[in-house]
Amino acid sequence: AEAALNADINTKGRAECDGKLSCSKATYFDAKATQCGGYEACKEITALMDISSIDCLATRSCSNNHILAALNVKCNANRACQYSVIESGKSVQCEGHYGCANADITS
């Protein structure tokens, strides 16, 4: 199932987007800590992702985004964060095959 597709996501706590396409194409995204553990989860979000930290742990998760994180960004899966603009206040970790490929990274 595709959870929270084309949704507005605004939480003071943690967002867990662990299913296929979970939280993808959200029109607004604001959460403290975010986990994108499903296939293509959190991809192509049309609004700035304003978060404290994000873990992109599945194939193509967090791809084609503008990610603004106060702390850490982890792109630890195949093609995670690919084609994204990433701004992190502390660190960016890219450990998957093609993780952060063609990305613009500022940390």
Description:
Strands 1, 2, 3, 4, 5, 6, 7, 8 and 9 form a nine-stranded parallel beta sheet that branches. The protein has strands at residues 8-10, 14-17, 28-36, 49-56, 66-69, 72-75, 85-88, 91-94, 104-106. It is built from no helices and nine strands.
Short characterization:
This protein is an all-beta fold and 107 residues long. Helices cover 0% and strands 40% of the residues.
What topology does this entry show?
Blueprint: E1 8-10, E2 14-17, E3 28-36, E4 49-56, E5 66-69, E6 72-75, E7 85-88, E8 91-94, E9 104-106
Parallel strand pairs: 1-3, 2-3, 3-4, 4-5, 4-6, 5-7, 6-8, 7-9
Shape: globular
Contiguous helical run count:
0
Most strands sheet: 9 strands, parallel
Rg, rounded, reads: 12 Å
Count the beta strands.
9
Percentage of β-strand residues: 35-45%
Task: List low-pLDDT spans.
Answer: none
**Fraction of helical residues:** under 10%
Integer average pLDDT: 89
Structural class by SSE content: mainly beta
The helix/strand order is EEEEEEEEE
Termini separation? 34 Å
